[in-house]
């Protein structure tokens, strides 16, 4: 996965975290200098660990703080990116998917890019979580999910409640 796709994937997770009220409150407390509540409840610890796994927060000896590395990588990636509209980028306007390609090979590349941006290796997402992340790219999340499953890029749990990365790349 390219550095740019990885950074985009992290920002999808940041957006999903910001949509979660408890995660948003914790991040606000850290950013405002109030810090995370100590001792944090189990759910607060889980939310803080999620922010840390995304790369936005880190825990040092004195508490939780913003990890500037993700911000620096994002800015560097944005400044290095060209306004290149070749390859799959021609189907996007910024990060938003404007249209799905008609050609199966191009469609596969687009949904592969989207899959890599929204789910990591070994990560399993509930359908609501996957929808939340896909909605950043396109409003028709059911269509994107279906293509990802059809192309073998996502595997759906037998009961239909969860998704994980497929074996095809």
UniProtKB/TrEMBL annotation:
Domain annotation DUF2087: ranges: 96-164
Family matches, as InterPro entries: DUF2087 (IPR018656)
Domain of life: Bacteria
Pfam families recorded: DUF2087 (PF09860)
Protein name: DUF2087 domain-containing protein
Organism: Glutamicibacter mysorens
